[in-house]
Amino acid sequence: MSNSFRTKTTLDKGVTIPSLIFIISICLISAIFPDFTETLLNKVKNFIFVNFNWVYVWCVTIFVIFLVYLMFSKYGNIKLGSNDSKPDYSFFSWVSMLFSAGMGIGLMYFSVAEPMQHYSNEVLMGNSTISPAKNAQLYTFFHWGIHAWAIYGTVGLSLSYFAYRYKLPLSLRSCLYPILKDKVKGKWGNAIDVFALCSTFFGITTTLGFGVVQINSGLETLNIVPESSFIYQIIIVGVLVSISIFSAVTGVDKGVKILSNINIISVVILLLFVLFLGPTVYIISSFTEGMGSYIHNFFKLTFNTHIYEEETLPWFYDWTILYWAWWISWSPYVGLFIAKISKGRTIREFISAVLIIPTLFNFIWMSVFGNSAIWFDINVANGLLSELSSNPDALMFNFLEYLPFTKVISLLAISIILIFFVTSADSGMFVMNSISSKNSQNSPKWQTAGWGILLAILALFLLNAGGLEALQSMTLITALPFSIIILLFVVSLVKALAIDNDYYKRDFQVTPWSGLFWKERLKQIISYDDQKSVDEFIENTVKPAFKELHQEFVNNGIEATVHFSDKPKSVEIEIKYDVVNNFVYGVKNQSKLVSQYLIDEDNLGGFEEDCSYLPITYFGDYRKGYDVRLFTKDELISDVLKHYERLLAIISEEKNEMFISSNANKK
Asked: Does the pLDDT value for residue 20 go beyond 70?
């Protein structure tokens, strides 16, 4: 039975067993002793927030500065993958998925509640000369803006880079490879993955638990269910988790992608609905001024620890530091999911999209909902919405009652929350299965479904016992050590990028032309070859050169292989290694489109087709190739040897051992 189980599961014992023991133990303690556990963990959390809040402030600031630097640096053009890799998803699908996984239910839960709570907080506004509404928007922007996405972006970028560029497993342990080297394969690596799995599970469980309460409250407001009770919450969880499991087992390419696309479209519809049926002029004007205020106060907000404003310190701990801890605790989950869908993007493209697009959308969303609620509270509700600010479960739906077509818009809001619930759960299942199986690509479907079932059972168990708050505190406590781990990710990424840049920018001397046969070469320069002539060049010049060189390698005790292909015509010479990446030098027949201007130019000799064909080099490490149609056989041999000499020079340097490891031979 034991052998049968091993053949049917990809779970790694060193990661899964310790994680499950810790997860179930904490959940049982939180459920059996909810008050004691919550009190104890709150004391630990408050101690950390009061005494180590500066750690969160500095870490988040470093992440922002680091990503902005990379975006504009020479490293921005490096791809998350080999140099010729292409993105797996369209830009729209990619942004939809990272957005749905990154914020999800929180946008619906806090879009009205947070601005209203800041707006009605007398302590926060006591020493401010700014209007309460403007201040509320400023702090909401701050908590949901670039700083939050910089945390996700740093983790996601590290994972993407080491997984797709260095061909290491898509695992948090891989992000420390430059520091720990082969130790990441042992207990140190397991410890990092256990930490990530537990943090992910706790974060998703608490979020889904609170999300169910909001869904139940919305259904009660619309008279779809008679009350908010545990029975209805069980039904809601059962239905939604079943859909989530179905979505997760169909894979990212189907279920998660389709639901994310539907969700982003639904969100935009709801956004436009509130924008045009609410106080439109007020919303647009307040958004414009809010953007200016955010940019103007960016650095002040970033470094502010409120040490000179003691009366605001409790608010600072309960909001800003709590948010930074919450985003950090969620970053293993969101980072892994973002990394999974980001192969083929450049570093600049990745950072630009992750930092700017979701941030801008969050600002628009929070302005439309938060500022509309404040406007209604002042001009229509006579403060009734402010009084509900401490009850975010019902606040969103009470706010919607002041808009036309209340039932329709409330149903749309519930639909979005439901889809956010499903997309958070299915991507969470996918990520947890990935961590627990060390990113195995052949996991059985029951294994992914098992994480969903465990999520549902423990979320309901804690919800009924009142232990969700304790679990939330536990999640926030784990953020402190993980913030230090993310800083180490930054150090590893800096080291790796420097090696990467040196490797691909390393100069090599192209074989010089001696000047012989210049008349023939002039004819080649001014002509544009067709496919047949390039095939003949590869057959009559490149192939003999590689065969001759292959024989000489063999004579010197080096095992080499020459590979041929006809569609398209190509020849390559390969030297395989066990420790370092293989040496490959190939030439292939490659077409390129030609400008119409050149086709119409009589003084260039002319040609009949709208494309020309060239013999272009390619290499095992995916460096950019070049045209060798002017090379003779001996010059080609010389060029191959110069690249081989370059490889030997690079692998002789200790600092490059990580980048040229045999992982690069993986496809």
From this structure: yes
